[in-house]
Amino acid sequence: MLDAPVATVALTVPVGESALMKVLVAGSSGFVGRRLCPALEQAGHAVRAMTRRPEKYHGAGKAVHGDVHDVESLSTALAGCDAAYYLVHSLDNADFEQRDAEAARTFAHAAAEAGLRRIVYLGGLGDDADDLSAHLRSRREVEDLLGSGGVPVTTLRAGIIVGHGGISWEMTRQLVEHLPIMIAPLWVQTRTQPIAVADVVRYLVGVLEIPEAAGRAFDIGGPDILAYVDMMRRVAAIQGRPMLIIPVPLLSPQLSSLWLSLVTDVDVQTGRSLIDSMTNEVVMREHSIRRLIPFEPLDYDNAVLQALGERVKARRRS
Predict the structure, then answer these.
(1) Which residues of the chain are under the pLDDT cut of 50?
(2) Burial level of 290, CB count in 10 A (0-12/13-18/19+)?
(3) How many domains does the chain have?
(4) Residue 48 belongs to domain spanning
(5) What pLDDT sits at residue 178?
(6) First and final CA of the chain: distance in angstroms?
(7) pTM here?
């Protein structure tokens, strides 16, 4: 995954269970986690940033060793915590479903043993009545398994998250940058509801101290519902690039993933997992989160501008 800068987010967190919590973030060095840790600190919480290599962690919070597949390391990392965020998944492994299920079971057991009051999980949008891809089925399974130890789980389900360093966003940006004329598979017509990474972080922090959010799943998304082809065209328009997209029915998921690996930084396995999911429409089916945490999420164009701005700043620092 590409490096992404930490984005701080101005937050007004509702008063709820406690004015200050000790919170573990599993996945602290990832695309969302490296933004979430400073936002939690800004909101007044004591943050433990869990990583397999704490000596290499330089982000917000106190770095602690932990591995979601190692219950002993989790017991040490979670000791004394009130809540935990679970931002872990392994799309780059062919056996990601089994690995993610095993990790969720292990984490659920360790969280229960540590006496946590809440787990907050970032999952994926998708209609349960649909024939969900393996990726989205796995996200649902992880939701259930995280609650198997008895700790209440709050799940936020998102589609495409727009921000510098995010895999789905980088795939979109790089396709637009490298291919002014694109022969694209039919999944480019599938609708999704993208959301800015800063708004994801705002929701993640906000639900922590709302007792009504415990044990519930919420859909989150921005105000725009767009087909993937429209997302790419809008990115091209914002950047002033030419873009001609011709959907064809000939590209299989395997061929599409190989094609992606040639023109983007996305590896074949991750690309295959993402492409399989792109046949499923991922839009909000319920909007209760907007009553609990009322604010206006960024529209797609402004989310894109923010992501492009983050990329420029990151390249200047490198």
Answers:
(1) 1-18
(2) middle
(3) 1
(4) 22-225+279-317
(5) 85
(6) 16
(7) 0.89
